[in-house]
Amino acid sequence: MEGSKVENGSSSEGRPPNPLAGAYWQCFSHNDGVPVLCKKSLVRHPSLMKTKTSDIKVEPGVQAEEFESKFIPVVRSGAWADIGSRPSMEDVYVCVDNFMHDYGLKNRTDGPSAFYGVFDGHGGKHAADFACFHLPKFIIENEDFPRDIERVVTSAFFHTDTAFEEACTLDATLASGTTALTALLIGRLLVVANAGDCRAVLCRRGKAIEMSRDHKPICGKEKQRIEASGGFVYDGYLNGQLNVARALGDWHMEGMKGRDGGPLSAEPEFMTAKLTEDDEFLIIGCDGIWEVFMSQNAVDFARRRLQEHNDPATCSKDLVDEALKRKSGDNLAVVVVCFQPQPPPNLIAPRSRVQRSFSAEGLRELQSFLDDLKT
After folding, report:
1. Which residues are 113's β-sheet partners?
2. Looking at residue 68, what is its pLDDT?
3. Distance from C-alpha of 285 to C-alpha of 17, rounded to nearest angstrom
4. Which residues form the PPM-type phosphatase domain (predicted)?
5. What range defines the domain where residue 44 resides?
């Protein structure tokens, strides 16, 4: 599909469909051999009826500017992935620079509509493949999109999670889990949804702005939620088994999830920002990247590379290659999204005006020196 890119693994029969196939991005039915776009309505899963919009916790993000900016982002993206030191690849990413157009919707907003995601699988790649394929479709098929974005995206996360449970009941070999981090750009509004330990970092005039919070079981809020849901944290792991507190899938793991909830949550947290002229690019990476990069360090590194070649795809590869040099021990996947056509500008720090003065002791020493010259 023009304007979109996905990195995924192959699938065999009975497993999630291969997203590199022609039917990956759009659902087709066939009438006398002629493909016809399916206009399927989104069926609300029963589990979603238990989650009221008022119950969804929204993590406040970067606040909008007080003035109304006329800035319109010019979107360019690229991505790169590497198996790293692991025996198999379980990371998946997706880049869609023209989300509504590529999914057959008319863009009714000023500026771009774009969708990006990184899915870090564990216990196999099937959950990551499944989420990468289904989650954007659940978003675009929701009749409330793009009006109520946070509720629509939350619904898509839950739909993907329960749909994967149903797929696993039909084929037990699919059993696995995945973290999920998505970024939606509608006009100037950037909405990041996270369930897991992938991370999104915005570069605002050279400064790193974290657009997600790592969901580790040892984090205070997550530990409280886990224990309130009947789980426990042992040696940094949820129920002694998972090192993430939120994920899609993992329905096969006893004590993790149920239709009435559980310690492992699929509910995303949100951070939002209204982009301005100062916003340069966004980095989305799996936890293998953040094992060896601090957020500001990654922004500094990516900024220098973009100043050299101004290519988000090459910049993504640069980040992955550098993570490998720094001995990251995990699969690696990175998406870089630029919001300007030109490379990041050089930042010139203003010179501080330093007032210099002699101390009293210094003046005495100088006077003594001058007196010695007279004698």
Report:
1. 186
2. 59
3. 24
4. 76-339
5. 4-13+22-342
How much is the pLDDT for 44? 38
Asked if 84 contacts 295 with a C-beta cutoff of 8 angstroms, the reply is no
Token duo for residue 203: 């570069």
> In the prediction, which pLDDT does 288 show?
96
**Which portions of the chain are predicted below pLDDT 50?**
1-3, 8-67
Domain-embedded: residue 213: yes
CATH for 172? 3.60.40.10
Q: Where are the beta strands (DSSP E) in 218-300?
A: 233-234, 237-238, 248-249, 269-274, 279-285
- Rounded to 10 degrees, what is the CA torsion of 303, 89, 76, 114? -130
278's enclosing H/E stretch is: none
- For the stretch 161-219, pLDDT in tens is 999 999 999 999 999 999 999 999 999 999 999 999 999 999 999 999 999 999 999 99
Q: What does the pLDDT read at residue 347? A: 84
Say what the pLDDT of residue 259 is.
79
Cα separation, 25 vs 243, in Å, equals 32
Q: What is the pLDDT of residue 107?
A: 74
* Cα(279)–Cα(294) distance, integer angstroms: 19
Tokens of 279: 């916003």
Q: Is residue 362 part of a domain?
A: no
- β-strand pairing of 113-122 with 177-186: antiparallel
Q: How many domains does the chain have?
A: 1
274: Cβ–Cβ under 8 A, 6 or more apart, which residues? Answer: 64, 65, 69, 188, 189, 190
- Residues 325-356 have pLDDT tens digits of 999 999 999 999 999 999 999 987 656 565 66
Q: Contact, 139 vs 116, CB < 8 A?
A: no
Rounded Cα gap, residues 158 and 171, in angstroms: 20
The pLDDT of residue 54? 34
Half-sphere exposure of 299 (CA within 13 A, CB side): 21
Other beta carbons less than 10 A from residue 82's beta carbon: 19
For the chain, what is the total number of helices (H) and then of strands (E)? 8, 16
What residues contact 297, with CB distance under 8 A and at least 6 apart? Answer: none
From residue 268, give the alpha-carbon distance in Å to each of 253, 259, 297, 337, 340.
20, 17, 26, 21, 28
Residue 354, in any domain of the structure? no
Name the DSSP class of 50.
Answer: G
